[in-house]
# Entry
Amino acid sequence: MKADIGVTGLAVMGANLARNFARNGYTVALHNRSRARTDALVAEHGNEGTFIPTETLTQLVENLAVPRRVLIMVKAGQPVDDVIDQLVPMLAPGDIVIDAGNSHYEDTRRREAALAAKDLHFVGIGVSGGEEGALNGPAIMPGGPKESYEALGPLLEDISAHYEGDPCCAWIGTDGAGHFVKMVHNGIEYADMQVIGEAYDLLRSVGGIEPADQAGIFRSWNSTDLASYLIEITAEVLGHVDAQTGKPLVDVIVDQAGQKGTGRWTAISGLDLGSPIGAIAESVFARSLSSQSEIRATAQQMLAAGTGSVPAPQDADRDAFVEDVRLALYASKLVSYAQGLDMLTAAAAEYGWSLDLGTIASLWRDGCIIRADLLDVIMKAFGGRDTSRHPEPGTTAEGQPSNLLFAPEFRDAIAAALPAWRRVVATAVAAGVPVPVFSSALSYYDGLRRDRLPAALTQGLRDYFGAHTYRRADREGTFHTLWSGDRSEIEA
Ligand SMILES: NC(=O)c1ccc[n+]([C@@H]2O[C@H](COP(=O)([O-])OP(=O)(O)OC[C@H]3O[C@@H](n4cnc5c(N)ncnc54)[C@H](OP(=O)(O)O)[C@@H]3O)[C@@H](O)[C@H]2O)c1
# Structure
């Protein structure tokens, strides 16, 4: 008996994916650098399906049906290259090497090109949903050559999460497209969590609402257009009381946010692509600032607040304030999605990917951390799933909005939220509560819709100190003013 797929790297993610394949009826060959993880998996979960434990990579490959499908789930970085280097001599043209870890998309592009030169398929897939998702159904974003999806796609779709019958898995685009889209998913996730944090801070610092009561508020928000996994678990965390102290858990957790790097990668890529993803970048910076414990401690002693008094809203005003914050959260969240999707469009142009935003939004509807009712609306705004990436019928991607905020439903929703959004940002500024994503998202919105931007002055300054030239609004051409001469204008 040959296995349908081999998995090498059986730490928590690899083991859970292997079990997920087996539970879906696939025969799974197992390998791990050190044998103990393989044995533990078979001992604890061997009854969940058909596993073929192996001792070496050679044995793993020997036990695979053709075309061989080998899924690598080892530590990201050099270990992935090490495993690929060992595998390549054992494989034959048409075989598929899959990297399902959190690899950087540039590494995936490099690896794909190297393996294509040997007639091997290399497929980088983004997997979201954490440990639980890997076991029970993650969102899966596969890149690599499209033809590889014929042999691999059905397996991945079977183990993925499903939203109303649609698998949260579809071919994304060539080479590193899958890992790129997963990276942007994580960038959006950072922004999603930051706007929740800003709402919590405002409700508490300005609204005077304690965590236990906020849990109820977030729970009720989960029945609105904010309905999402992250809002749901915010209610859980805010409602949790620390057993040792009897305080809300959120009050005993050190207020320094960690990060593993995918948000930072998104911000860096946004800068490289010239993509204005301020809300996402601000959410990364907010985590960095939170972690600067020493400088924060000094700042608390040295820096003035300069805030006026912002009275806590009472009774009916309090309900209105809570609703304002909810609308500001929703609008800021929409902007961070708009920025992330806009960045995907920029990347598609840069790397020659044909990314379908409707399909991508559809994959995030379940299984992943940013899963939200909103994503179904976003998918529909972009014309649904592209059927060529998925066997089920759907609609074509024609007539997509060039920015998510231009889709009629979102344009109207933001218009309705705007007065509240502006009030909330103004209140936060007056109260000295930092709201980097609420405010940056609002500035992005205003920047987009503004008739004239001060960029004209920036161009004038650049021309003054560096003869960088400028274009005129009233006629074609490129111009320079002779600033240190008679200040006449010449055509450059
Ligand atoms: N999508 C998600 O939600 C999510 C969540 C967590 C992690 N991840 C990603 O998934 C991947 C796996 O994560 P993980 O937490 O399960 O495992 P991990 O801790 O990142 O890596 C441990 C695994 O890598 C193996 N390994 C390390 N160096 C190796 C080398 N040079 N050669 C061969 N094997 C090597 C280890 O083998 P030994 O047992 O022999 O040490 C072990 O199986 C990573 O890319 C991670 O970033 C994704």
